[in-house]
Specification:
The chain is mainly alpha-helical. It has a single domain, classed as Leucine-rich Repeat Variant (Alpha Horseshoe). 76% of the residues lie in helices and 0% in strands. Helix 1 packs antiparallel against helix 2 and helix 2 packs parallel to helix 4. 17% of the residues are buried.
């Protein structure tokens, strides 16, 4: 839980690279909570938002196949 809180803070960072690594962390954890968190993110960067949307789709697919 502490890890998710710290990474969630990374999504609010000004640095696009920090935001990207935060998204990667949620992608690697792959839990339903990660989908909920990422679904509420609006990062402002088109390429990063597309990446977030793809991560959400991938996680949903992965969790549904279990």
């Amino acid at each position: 839980m502490t890890g998710q809180t710290n990474v969630l803070a990374g999504l609010s960072n000004r640095s696009v690279e920090v935001k990207e690594y935060a998204v990667r962390s949620f992608e690697n954890w792959g839990s339903p909570d990660c989908i909920e968190i990422l679904d509420g993110v609006d990062c402002g960067e088109t390429w990063l938002q597309e990446y977030i949307n793809q991560v959400i789709l991938d996680l949903e697919e992965e969790l549904l196949s279990e």
